[in-house]
């Protein structure tokens, strides 16, 4: 007897696959239930049925998993749902994530490789150096809120007062901004009508220097007729700069974004006070970070990650290294002091400008950066690499770009991935192109969440 859509069922979670997909045994079938944890007994409603595959929507946890051995640290845990692994000990989280990655790679046909486990984050809490908060309300026509989406909701925004994965400076700044916006009855931009003013609060904070950039993202629809927009920003700037923080605000910026898409971007940027960058230090190198610069969101975790990369790259003397999808050039600059030449390719112009500025800041003369799509840019580079480092976006590498990378025929490739399912797909193509997976090591950059980074070393075999 097959399961029926809309009917509520109960079952035990056999395992949890990346990212946070519980596989539930029910009436002789296996149902994928997002948010269900291995070992839990859950109730769910069947939501999809196609080609013998079943998906369900989690209703409740009837019995906890034996892995849930502690109480959540965050007061918003039950409503937010962002850091879903908080009930697991950190040791169990690491084991959980490494098993998920290994299972994905093994199931994709990879074998005879050395799985080197997972490296822990130096900090389990307060590790994020970047946070995007959204404006909205927690219920229809309710009080203005500034925080994160409620679990399972596209519209409701939970007011965040004590997020645990960021430094408390973020919570203090959040509180100051939302209280000031409430004071002047500013409206938020509604997702359907696109009417209203407030959109996001973006905060970036350097872990090593404590320097902070605060960005208020709005539409161009100023809604308070009794106060000028300029006076509001001066007033808010005064309040922000008077806060007692662990770090120090070095820049307050106003970003105007009228794009209907619910993403942090800017049609125009005004520096209200201070500057539009801060400095961070990783493995002895200094990096200038701007609003949209890509930079690993766990600074101390990045040191662990890049140490693994440096170890996998191995001997670099007199060798040319390509750093593809290079972001602000962090990896390139860490490898440059011991390489002949490093060439970074990155599609985001602002990141490339930051990379160039950072390499100059660190006195590196053998490090260059090109702005462009890897797929197209490789055709224009005359240099031939000895080693290639890949750190692509979540969706992985375009198959045609992978073909060009394979055609270089370098002895070693190092692949850094933030999504193991995309990684597995790309490894299949690389394997068919003559590359063998030699070593894999995971790195936990996001404790208490479902996310994990993976570093792979591949060697040319034919």
List key phrases describing it.
462 residues; eight-stranded mixed β-sheet; globular
Produce the secondary structure layout:
Blueprint: E1 8-17, E2 21-26, E3 29-34, E4 41-50, E5 53-63, H1 77-80, H2 90-107, E6 114-119, E7 130-137, E8 144-149, E9 157-159, H3 168-183, E10 198-205, E11 211-218, H4 229-241, E12 248-256, E13 268-274, E14 277-282, E15 285-290, H5 299-313, E16 320-324, H6 330-335, E17 341-346, H7 349-361, E18 367-371, H8 374-377, E19 387-390, H9 399-407, E20 412-417, H10 420-432, E21 435-443, E22 453-460
Parallel strand pairs: 3-5, 6-21, 11-12, 16-17, 16-19, 17-18, 19-20
Antiparallel strand pairs: 1-2, 1-4, 2-3, 4-5, 7-8, 7-10, 8-9, 10-11, 12-13, 14-15, 20-22, 21-22
Describe the structure.
The structure is a single chain. This protein is globular. The protein has an eight-stranded mixed sheet with strand order 6-21-22-20-19-16-17-18, with helices on both faces. Strands 9-8-7-10-11-12-13 form a seven-stranded mixed sheet. A five-stranded mixed β-barrel has the order 1-2-3-5-4. The chain is an alpha/beta fold and 462 residues long. The termini are far apart. It contains ten helices and 22 strands.
